[in-house]
Each structure stands twice: as structure tokens, then as C-alpha cells.
Design brief:
212 residues, NADH Oxidase, five-stranded antiparallel beta sheet, 43% helix, globular
């Protein structure tokens, strides 16, 4: 199987990226999967806390366990795509960020007032989730674009029982939030990509004031 190696402009990758819902089972080489994960790892995150973690699923028995955590077409997709990537948002990184800020306060590198943020990072579950999930989603977007650059197709899916997904790949209880599954591979023979539909551009932006 040949993979794109020539440079690919990021705007071209954005324009070419589509969600594919029928895959053929050709495996994706480990070095390509690692390249996708490296791209995801370059994503920005608030205060550089980098909450994303990924589990790559390739073996038939693990694919079957992943499929059991969903239904319908998603179950078929994860069993036929070359690989599926379980995306996780790490609450441990909220704790690590709290530790880092606390150390900065002790060293006089951050004002004592930041202790309030430390407390929120440790105790406010809604704040912890609102921190780690959006940053993980950004990393998922980077992964999707990197796959497009390599000539691969993807589908980001969230219609899973997150707890069952985490159990299927042995994620420690309580430490991680489910952020979706990305199927990666090559479209099935005969797959026809539907035309992309988007709202008119002028509907989604304003300058200076909303609606202007």
C-alpha cells in the first residue's frame, strides 16, 4: 500500500478531509500510526497541560470488544477499518498542572492568588472536565488532518458507551474521560464520498460585534 510522502499544504488537507463510513481491512503500518499520534501531540493546550492519550486498536479481538461498546454502523466500522484509535482526556494532567502551579507559587514564580486555581483544578470536577476535554478534541483534529496528509481516510465517532470502551482497552477507572474513537484506513472499494455541505460562510462570522 502506497502512502503520500510529498508535502501537503494544511489548507489542502483541510479541504480534502472527509468522514468515511466504509473501510477495507488493509492494515495501517505502525510508523504511519505513530506519525499521526505525533501530529496530535503537537496540538496546543491550555497552560501546556497536554491532556490527550490514545490507545491504538488493531487486533481482531480488541476490535470486537470495541464494537461491543456501540451498535449499528459504528460497530461494523471499528471491525473493518485498518485501525481504530481510542481518544482519552486525562484528568491526571489536571492534577499535574495543579502540582506545577503550586510549585511555582512556592518558588515565588507565580502569585499566591493562583492557589484558587490550584484548588479548582483539584476539586471542581466540572472545571477539570471543561479543561481536559476541549484540549483533547483539538488534538483529535490534528490527528485527522495528519491522516489526510498520508492519504488515509478517517471517521471520528462518539456514539459509544465510553465506560465500556475504557474497559475494553483497560483504561484505569476514574482517571480518564472518553473523547471518541477515530477509525483510520482506506475507503472500501466503490465508496462514494457524499458532497460536503456547509452553511454559507457569511452566516458564521462577524467583525467587532455579533451579527455585524
Amino acid at each position: 500500500m502506497q502512502y503520500r510522502t510529498e508535502p501537503c499544504d494544511v489548507l489542502e488537507a483541510i479541504a480534502r478531509r472527509h468522514s468515511v463510513r466504509e473501510f477495507r481491512p488493509d492494515p495501517v503500518p505502525d510508523e504511519v500510526l505513530i506519525a499521526l499520534l505525533e501530529a496530535a501531540h503537537q496540538a496546543p493546550s491550555a497552560m501546556n497541560h497536554q491532556p490527550w492519550e490514545f490507545v491504538v486498536v488493531r487486533r481482531p479481538e480488541t476490535k470486537a470488544a470495541l464494537a461491543a461498546a456501540t451498535a449499528g454502523r459504528n460497530a461494523q466500522i471499528v471491525q473493518t477499518a485498518g485501525a481504530s484509535i481510542v481518544c482519552l482526556a486525562s484528568l491526571r494532567q489536571a492534577d499535574a498542572l495543579a502540582d506545577r502551579i503550586e510549585a511555582q507559587i512556592r518558588a515565588g514564580q507565580a502569585p499566591p492568588e493562583r492557589q484558587a486555581l490550584v484548588q479548582r483544578l483539584r476539586e471542581d470536577q466540572a472545571h477539570r472536565q471543561a479543561l481536559v476535554l476541549p484540549n483533547t478534541y483539538t488534538a483529535v483534529g490534528f490527528l485527522l488532518l495528519a491522516a489526510t496528509r498520508y492519504g488515509l481516510s478517517t471517521l471520528w465517532m462518539t456514539g459509544f458507551d465510553g465506560e465500556r470502551v475504557k474497559a475494553a482497552v483497560s483504561v484505569p477507572a476514574g482517571d480518564y474521560l472518553f473523547a471518541g474513537v477515530v477509525a483510520v484506513g482506506h475507503p472500501a472499494e466503490g465508496w462514494e464520498q457524499p458532497a460536503r455541505t456547509r452553511r454559507p460562510l457569511e452566516e458564521i462570522y462577524s467583525f467587532e460585534r455579533f451579527g455585524k
